[in-house]
Amino acid sequence: MDQILKLNQKVQTTTSRSSCVVESLLGGGGQGEVYRAILGGRPVALKWYYSASATPEQQTALETLIKMGAPSDRFLWPMELAQATGTPGFGYLMPLRDPRFKGIVDMMKRRIEPSFRALATVGLELSHSFLQLHSKGLCYRDISFGNAFFDPHSGEVLICDNDNVAVDNQSKSAVYGTPRFMAPEIVRGDAVPSTQTDLFSLAVLLFYMFMMHHPLEGRKELAIKCLDLPAMKRLYGSEPLFIFDPVDQSNAPDVQHQRNALVFWEIYPRFLRNLFIQAFTAGLTDPQHGRVRESNWRSAMVRLRDSIIYCAHCKAENFHDAGDNQAEKKTIGSCWS
Questions:
Q1: What is the pLDDT of residues 319-333, one digit of tens each?
Q2: Alpha-carbon distances of 99 from 8, 172, 218, 335, rounded to whole Å
Q3: Cα–Cα distance for residue pair 310/194, rounded to 1 Å
Q4: Global pTM value
Q5: How far apart are CA 281 and CA 240, in angstroms?
Q6: CA-CA distance, 306 to 321, in Å (whole number)?
Q7: What is the pLDDT of residues 251-283, one digit of tens each?
Q8: CA torsion angle for 46, 141, 173, 138 (degrees, to 10)?
Q9: Any idea what the Cα angle at residue 137 is, between residues 203 and 89, rounded to 5°?
Q10: 10-94 maps to which CATH number?
Q11: What is the architecture, at CATH level 2, of domain 102-306?
């Protein structure tokens, strides 16, 4: 396989003029390749851009991010730009992700099975981290499965691919997000990424984590014979409908084919379900006022974690829904598992 950089090749950081040695290729994506490298005796990650992505605009954006610094240590933030003699383009250094951090896709495929307590901590850390990012006047642009990692035991979070972060409403980047996570107004072509569209993407990511299903994929998705671009534009852009919309049940989950959503929805307390209802009803049509803020998610995750009780018989985690009298009457002494 051809690589941009060769093993043991040296690159030089542009600010400190330090030498960095390439150790191995970690992977590649649409913009470039990521390597494990050694800088001053410690391992780091090195992203090197393909020629089409190594633009002056991208370099300027990275310089801005490096100067601003990371919102917190949860972000694998760009540290320094790098160049290499005889190799066109440029790259940047960032902290290397510890192997104990796993992707959300690992959970969707049941390669890992975190506890509800760990998941609530993940939700807390994600919402707090994006609040910190947005508080600096930045938007992430591409919140999705591939950019968030967590420790399945502790719930600690790491957020990667931060080179696409931009000043809110000022970037001309071509990065608009990941299909199924983009806000409806972006899918329709009515808006560009912003902190408001980040809020929608964050809500989708949280729903996936807790319900193991997409919030807009119900019977209407099952009825589509060919999920091509026009069909996706209708489902996620022009005609989005929450699978648990309290008024319109025409897109409710199918009992046979979409059981995950049906099973998990009933497990969680009403206060969490109400936030999801807001995010995918008012939040679909009113980006400015209808979407759930990061601080609201953060408070809900703290409350969710505090509501966990353990079954006296099987030790399974359950939720005490103190704010829902009807649910409490039905579930006192019962265990979902």
A1: 998 776 554 444 445
A2: 22, 34, 35, 34
A3: 40
A4: 0.93
A5: 9
A6: 11
A7: 999 999 999 999 999 999 999 999 999 999 999
A8: -90
A9: 95
A10: 3.30.200.20
A11: Orthogonal Bundle (1.10)
Place of tokens 């379900």: 273
Q: How confident is the model at residue 69 (pLDDT cuts 50, 70, 90)?
A: very high
How many C-alpha atoms does 141 have within 13 Å on its Cβ side? 20
As a whole number of Å, the end-to-end CA separation of the chain is 48
Nearest to 66 by CA among 188, 163, 168, 190: 163
Sheet of 157-159: strands edge to edge?
Answer: 102-103, 148-150, 157-159
The continuous run of DSSP H or E covering 88 comes out as strand 87-94
Task: Classify residue 252 by its DSSP letter.
Answer: P
Distance CA 129, CA 138 (A): 12
Q: Specify the 3-state DSSP secondary structure of 212.
A: coil
User: Buried b vs exposed e over 4-25: b needs ≥16 C-beta within 10 Å?
Assistant: bbeeebebebbeeeeebebeeb
Q: Is 90 exceeded by the pLDDT of residue 337?
A: no
pLDDT tens digit sequence for 206-219: 999 999 999 999 99
* Cα gap 25→7, rounded to integer Å: 8
Residue 38: beta bridge partners? 21, 43
- Residue pair 194/167 in contact (Cβ under 8 Å)? The answer is no
What amino acid is encoded at 274 in this protein? Answer: N
Instruction: List the chain domain ranges.
Output: 10-94, 102-306
